[in-house]
Structures are given as C-alpha cells and as structure tokens.
Amino acid sequence: MSILYCEALGNHLSRDFARIRAIFSPLYAIICRSRARRRLAPPRLFIVIDLFSQIVRRTELGETVALCTVVRTRGSTPQDKGAAMLVLRDGNSIGTLGGGCVEAEVRVRAQRLMTENQNRLLSFSLNQDFGWDDGLVCGGVMDIAIQIFAAGDSTGSIQSILAELSANRPGLWVVDVTDESQKPAHFEIQIPPTPTLLIAGAGHVGRALALIARQIDFKVAVVDDRADCLSPSNFPDAQYILGDIEVELSRYKIEPWTYVVIVTRGHRHDAQALAAVVRSPAAYVGLIGSKRKIHTILNELHSQGVPRECLAKVHAPIGLEIAAVTPAEIAVSIAAELIAIRHGRGDVAANPMKVPADKLERWLRKSKPDKPPARL
User: Fold this and answer.
1) In angstroms, rounded to a whole number, what is the distance separating the alpha carbons of residues 376 and 370?
2) How far apart are the C-alpha atoms of 146 and 68, rounded to whole Å?
3) Which of 107, 227, 282, 334 is the most exposed, fewest CB within 10 Å of its CB?
C-alpha cells in the first residue's frame, strides 16, 4: 500500500468522520439538555468512604496520591458535585468522574501535580471538541479540584470526616486550591452518611428489595415479628430486628437519611407500622397496597390526629408505575423511587429518557446532510 494511498484514505475517513460528527453531535446535545431539564435538584452527595480510607492508609505507607473531586458544575454534565476519584502514582485510579476524555486528562494532570506536589483547580468544557469521542457533548462545565496527599502530610481532617460518618453523622469536606491563574478557590462539600433502608416486613417483597438495596449503597435493617423469616439466607448483610413491628419501629432511631419501606403481611400491621414512623424525620416513608387500602389507612391516621402535612409525605401506593407484578419487579419499582428521592426527584414524574420520536424526526429532517457519506 503506497504512502499516497494511505494519505488519501486517511483524508477520506477524516471527511466521513467529520460528516458523521456534524450529524450526530446535536443529538447528543439534545439528549443531555433533556436530562438536564429533568434534574430539578442536584443528587445527594455520595463520596465513597473508601477513597478517604485509602488516602489515610496509603500516605501512612509512604505513598503519594491525588484526590480529584468535582467541586462545581454548570449546565449538563455526566457527574455532579461531589463525584470523586483517587489517582495513584502509577496512573491507576479508584472511583470515577464519569469516564472518557475528561477523566483521562484529569488522571494525566494529577500525575504531573503529584510530581510537583501542588494542588490545582481545573475547568473542563464538555463541548464537541473535548467530549465527542466519549459522547460527552453535553455543553456543560465541570470544575475539578486536584489535592495532593504525600507521606507525612496531615490527614486529620479526613480522619475527622471518617469518624463522623462512622458515627452516622454528616461530614464537611473543605477544599482549598488555586486555579490555573493562581487565584485561590474555596469549596465546602457536605458528605451525608450512608443512607439506611429500614424495611418493615420480611416477606417476599422485603427480601427482594433488601438484595437490590445493598447494590445501590443502602445499609439495610429489617423489622419483623417472625423469627423464621429473619435469617442470613433471606437477608444477607442486613440488621435484623425481631419483635412487634410497631413497637420496634417506634424504638428505632430514624434520621434524616433513613428510608422506611412498609411491606408487612397485612392491613393491620401496615397501619400500625405507618403510625409509628409517619411523624419521623425520615427522608422517605413508603407504604405498599391498593389505593383503597391506602385511603382507608390514611383516613384512620388522620382521624387519630396525624397532621395532613405528615400524611402528605407518605409515598403510597409505593414505588414507580412500571406495571410490576412479581415481588422482584415490585422491589425494582420501589428501589427506583428510592433512587429518585435520594437524587432530589421525589416530586417529578418518572418518564423514559428516550428522545421523543417526533423531536428526533424534526431534528433529522433539519440536520439531513446534503449528500450521504461515501461508502468505503
């Protein structure tokens, strides 16, 4: 194959790629703008505790590491404030900033800054030039702080945060860096404890939900009065609370990061369980059942003096409408609602993120190229 032929083929492929890029770049932007409109509130911050533990452990062993944290976003971005990644000296990393070119560039810059032992604030615009290769043409901006931790550096602030989180209390992560022009920047990031899912009812739905909850970063506690249902085989890695459901729920310390799901075996137990938690500061209270059953229980509680505002916070019937039938499907429906609540979308109707067919058709007509790409 001659050099001239290779050059001609390369030019041909470049023109075709540019043509395809011109066609589909706006589509990525449409998708990202659509997702941005639907996110009415930023998600709950979730910095993996393992990253902080890794910093303490590795610096004690004499290593140098770089903590890379998304500290600010504007517009549509693949990650929100609080996403974090730890870069090691050999270039390997723990955690993610969303993948793609941005993450790769941050990893390279972090290695360089480790050599220089300097912190830095980097800003990335996710436009067509930067994000096309990874589909990150979202149009937003991500500010990422890189903080270097070397052997002998104090990790007292990190250990204080770990202690707070271990005690099931929120922590505050303070980030002080300088940007590319050496201008100082200060950020504060609230770090909530790992949320707890408190399941009232150890039946089929509760069992299926507990398995999913562990995979979406919830600690799980299960309350039931049946000893044979509370077992490691049914609820691996969960806290078991055996006793009268209403009494045990009343005793349980419910925090603002506690999510309560009521899926007991009967109407009477459901009503008693809801009465025990309806006035609590829980982030979420959900009750399974038909609309008729829900209507009856809520009326009963209102007649007993439960304020309307407390009843209005109850998610009932529980879950998102996905035509769920089996216990596993119902558990998926409930888990989806838990995720929506944790990410600030509790009062937003859940809809497919797919670009509507009429919008896609209008865009394709408008963006149709003058002539189709040449076939190789």
Assistant:
1) 18
2) 4
3) 227
Out of 71-80, 115-124, 178-187, 215-224, least confident range:
71-80
8 Å CB contact between 84 and 53: no
Q: How many CA atoms lie within 13 A of 155 on its CB side?
A: 24
**Cα–Cα distance for residue pair 37/34, rounded to 1 Å:** 5
Residue 12 tokens read as: 């041909």
pTM: predicted TM-score of the whole model, two decimal places: 0.70
Range of the domain at 125: 49-191
Question: Is 265 within the bounds of a domain?
Answer: yes
Identity (one letter) of the amino acid at 317?
P
Question: Which pair of structure tokens corresponds to residue 19?
Answer: 């043509």
Q: How confident is the model at residue 371 (pLDDT cuts 50, 70, 90)?
A: low
3-state secondary structure 127-180: CHHHHHHHCCCCCCEEEEEEEEECCCCCCHHHHHHHHHHHCCCCEEEEEEEEEC
Q: Is residue 276, in this structure, part of any structural domain at all?
A: yes
Q: Cα separation of 124 and 227, whole Å?
A: 55
Q: Quick check: 343 pLDDT over 90?
A: no
Counting the structural domains of the chain, the total is 2
Q: Measure the CA–CA gap between 35 and 304, rounded to whole angstroms.
A: 42
